[in-house]
Protein 1
Amino acid sequence: MLSDWVTVGGESNMAKTVAAATKTGEAAAPQAARGKAWLWAIMALLIVILLAGGGAVWAVKKSHAQDEEEGDAPRRSAAKANKAGTAPIFVALEVFTVKLQPDHEGEDKYLQLVPALKALDLPASERMKAYMPQIRHDMLNLLSGRKASQLADAQGMERLAIDLRNRVNQPLLDPRSPAPNADKAGADDPVQAVLFSSLIIQ
């Protein structure tokens, strides 16, 4: 009878132990599943962050590339236009009124001139505008040294236009370059020509 009770009691204790172990395993399984779920969630979040960062970098680079292309577009257009001989770029200047050197003693002559500068390209025209005070100063000095007799014919006016072009190009060119002194403009000279829309001597 005692052995039967022990056996029965032992079976009862064993059953309890097995039941407890089963419950422990059942409780541990959801915890393991939750841990794996968190791991997958963290990995997915990292992938999303990496993709978003890569997309942002790509977008910024593309934006900079577009800005550079847009900034270079006017220069390329101007260069193409100049090469094709179309759409020249002119920088108009305000009227000049200067006292000329007398041909005869006691004679006063004045020159009224409205010039325009033909630019090599768009950057050259912008550079001219930046140097405009010096350009006007140099042009006034050159004009005031002329005599009315030197401007009496087409050759004299052409000579004046060439001399003005060479003078205006000086501050716009590399200081290490020799001063321009040619009858024809250089291929890279910022000012390709000086034109007169009005020239009056009185």
Note: The chain has four helices and four strands.
Protein 2
Amino acid sequence: MEGHRIDRRLMKDAADFQKRHLIFEYHNVSHVLDALGSGVMYGRMEGIGEQEEKLLHTSLLLHEIGMIYGREGHEEMSACVAAFVLPHYCYSESEIREVCRVIRSSQDPANPGDLLEKLFLDADIDNLGRPDFWIRAESVRKEEHAKQGLDWLLHLKGLLSNHKYYTGSAGRLRSAGLKKNLHALDDVIEEYQRLYVFYS
């Protein structure tokens, strides 16, 4: 991962730890590094400073680490882990507070207050407007043990239909892809319903 503002030792330690312990279909080190890469890109597009980059990148690196304790409330657990480990990497108290705040901004319902939180949320689910949306969605389905079928397809449609981008950069880069994925999903749902009626 190039271009991040994270201490190299922290980057290695956190990535290695999550590679060993985040062994979920979707919420794993690949997702973490993917979100971090999107955060690096969007931060540059929005023109944030080096200190803001450090806080954003650190938040994205650690935002799923609480999943090792369980899915429920993992955002808060991720913030707690960040507060525990970051002093060992020379983060100041104010930096740690900011990182924890940004991580907590992903709690449902999301309501980002500043640019860092908006960048964080856009980076976290950047794949909704990308061609690899289908692969990522299948990983989520397997992780959640959801059944294939119309209910799952309608769930995905609701996710895409209700999604909003918080930064202009993400909107400009991904809106067209999001619409394309939504249209393709509508076609799949229509075909699924047609076949259901035919074989009923």
Note: Residues 82 and 125 are 21 Å apart (CA to CA).
Protein 3
Amino acid sequence: MEGTVEIGLNIAASGNGLTGSFGSGNVVNHGEIRINRLNNYTLGNTISGTGKLTQAGSGITTLTAANSYTGDTEIFDGGSIVLAENAELRFRLANNNSSNSVFGAGSASFFGTFVVDRSAVTDAIGTWNLVNVATLSEMFSGSFTLRFLDQQAEFESVGGGQYSSGDWVFDTSTGNLSLIPEPSAFAGFAGLGALGFAALRRRRR
């Protein structure tokens, strides 16, 4: 699927924004899925691809599948998206703090799992905004968790709305996933820098 497919006002036979769906089966989205329903809707299709999901209507859309699409998720003012328990959203990270995200002026409730693809990251340190808490009204439930795509082990809840796995920390208060090397790693970098500086001075003498 490429381009924009709208569930609700355009697809609904009644034209009232209360019906319309994908039916059964998986959805490969390389464009935009725009949900413009005025009532509550459960989207149980598994969505993959590089495209975007937009909650444009004033209803509540509940995602219940293990989704792997890597486009943004946008929620318009008045709309709401719920990531159900055992459902998944995929986030693909890149260098220079680049990633897809959940953003907008609506609300989002997260009961399921964020699956993080870090395979393209070579930076030693960084911060990626997965959820724009500055504009969204968001809620992270007790069942919410994260895991890496290449691991089955989930992040550990360390309290204060934070989840960690090794050098990685997700903070629900900021919506940011950060890669923070251990202090020993910084010491190692500093040591290498000092050795390099000393060698340079010796060469200049």
Note: The longest strand covers residues 88-94.
